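Appendix C: a fully annotated inverse folding record. The material below is reproduced so that readers can follow the format used throughout the book. The structure is listed first as tokens, followed by the designed sequence.
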């Protein structure tokens, strides 16, 4: 089973609550780029309404059309 959680770090520590099905070993990967991903997603959402970006995308589509 795989569970993905975003956890807050307090005093350089974090607590992860696991379901009972996790019995023996788990692999923990710490990634502090959560805020960077959120920022990139926000910029992508803004681009969907940006006239210059939309014009560029239309031009690219026409080139490949």
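Designed amino acids, in order:
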């Amino acid at each position: 089973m795989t569970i993905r959680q975003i956890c807050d770090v307090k005093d350089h520590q974090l607590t992860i609550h696991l379901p009972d099905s996790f019995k023996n070993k788990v692999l923990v990967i710490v990634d502090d780029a959560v805020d960077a991903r959120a920022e990139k997603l926000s910029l992508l959402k803004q681009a969907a309404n940006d006239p210059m970006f939309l014009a560029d995308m239309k031009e690219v589509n026409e080139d490949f059309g």
